[in-house]
Design the sequence.
């Protein structure tokens, strides 16, 4: 059995499962803090009830997210020991800071928030949930610092024997430009994810005319604004990130567009069926100049193609295949962008309804609002698949290939990996099911179920 394939499969499954929970944690922590701040400022009981309600759902998701995240770090030592040896001096630093600073900040003040209701002044209590939100989003920052080194290595030098990379500048690692392209994208995705959960749950209560109508009208108002802002920001952040990738990771862009040859102006693919082996289109519908516009805000501008980039990589790194799975990059990009476009539409519909204070939903509008929560999940998952798969065959771009990073089969066998893949998939599926059932139970129970 191919240990490389199994190790990649296990990491892909566990990371995608884990990332189901992360954006919702980021977004709901901030939304809960906003609700409690509104209570502190206005003294209105409905905001206190909403803060407890959304905080309850945040706690469920947070707990499952922590459990699924623990396995991620263990995999680096077990399945990817060669990677850990190569970049451990660099990669371990932001992960350690994330655990010791951000996660401890988050978990400590989460305890104060949970047990501090009516025991500490409400201003301090509201401050505790803001510190939870800050801790949650700082955790994301440090994880992205580690991931960004894999995407765009900075602040390092190779050891004298060439066996590993050593950090030379923590400042360069922290202020890696790739970090500050990824971070706004992830945070705004979290805001959008939290906002659409608020929209879906609030709409369900209003459509079913539960006893908390007034509170959920308020919740829908805040959620619509929150989701619209998140959807708009994630689109802008993604566009900025894509423009930078044209320069830093041109192969990822070319694969995402099935752009076989360099073009100037470059066309944008609406739909392409390609032959990866021959590196040519079988059928394609393209918009002339649009890819150049997206890349440079100008209808002319060179975007390098897969064939030319492959030749450049061979000349620079030696013989090998430096092309990622084009079909994976192409369709993950389209799922991400398609879901993101629908997110903007759904948020705009919700915002239009609440501005008019119209809480009567027809079948089509109701179905759109209720199902809208699935859109950021699709976009988030597809985005991370593109991010990680699009840089293959590199695990650290330009420094270490994925096939060089895996633990040797003599240490971890294919049978052991296959067993762990099956076991983890079953466990993670069960945890995801538990999360969904608990969220559904307490979301439909309403405000009184959170008391």
Sequence:
């Amino acid at each position: 059995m191919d240990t490389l394939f199994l190790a990649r499969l296990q990491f892909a499954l566990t990371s995608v499962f884990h990332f189901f929970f992360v954006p919702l944690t980021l977004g709901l922590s901030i939304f809960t803090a906003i609700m409690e701040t509104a209570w502190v400022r206005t003294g209105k009981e409905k905001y206190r009830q909403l803060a407890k309600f959304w905080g309850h759902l945040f706690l469920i998701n947070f707990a499952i997210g922590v459990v699924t995240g623990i396995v991620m770090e263990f995999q680096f030592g077990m399945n990817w020991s060669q990677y850990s040896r190569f970049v451990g001096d660099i990669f371990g630093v932001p992960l350690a800071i994330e655990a010791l600073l951000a996660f401890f900040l988050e978990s400590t003040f989460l305890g104060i928030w949970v047990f501090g209701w009516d025991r500490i002044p409400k201003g301090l209590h509201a401050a505790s949930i803001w510190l939870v939100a800050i801790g949650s989003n700082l955790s994301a920052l440090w994880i992205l610092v580690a991931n960004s080194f894999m995407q765009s290595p900075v602040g390092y030098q190779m050891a004298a024997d060439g066996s590993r990379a050593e950090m030379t500048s923590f400042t360069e690692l922290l202020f890696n430009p790739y970090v500050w392209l990824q971070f706004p994208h992830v945070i705004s995705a979290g805001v959008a994810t939290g906002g659409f959960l608020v929209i879906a749950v609030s709409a369900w209560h209003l459509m079913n005319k539960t006893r908390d109508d007034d509170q959920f009208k308020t919740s829908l108002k805040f959620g619509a604004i929150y989701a619209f802002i998140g959807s708009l920001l994630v689109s802008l952040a993604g566009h900025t990130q894509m423009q930078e990738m044209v320069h830093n990771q041109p192969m990822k862009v070319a694969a995402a567009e099935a752009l076989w040859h360099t073009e100037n102006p470059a066309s944008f693919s609406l739909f392409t069926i390609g032959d990866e082996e021959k590196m040519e289109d079988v059928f394609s519908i393209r918009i002339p100049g649009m890819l150049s516009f997206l890349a440079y805000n100008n209808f002319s501008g060179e975007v390098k193609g897969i064939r030319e980039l492959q030749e450049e990589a061979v000349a620079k790194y030696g013989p090998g295949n430096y092309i990622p799975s084009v079909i994976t990059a192409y369709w993950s990009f389209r799922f991400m962008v398609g879901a993101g476009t629908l997110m903007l539409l759904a948020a705009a519909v919700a915002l239009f309804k609440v501005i008019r204070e119209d809480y009567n939903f027809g079948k089509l509008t109701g179905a759109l609002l209720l199902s809208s929560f699935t859109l950021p999940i699709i976009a988030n998952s597809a985005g991370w698949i593109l991010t990680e798969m699009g840089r293959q065959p590199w695990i650290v771009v330009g420094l270490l290939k994925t096939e060089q990073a895996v633990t040797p089969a003599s240490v971890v066998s294919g049978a052991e990996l296959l067993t762990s893949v099956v076991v983890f998939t079953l466990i993670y599926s069960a945890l995801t099911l538990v999360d969904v059932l608990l969220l559904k139970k307490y979301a439909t129970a309403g405000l009184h179920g959170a008391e």
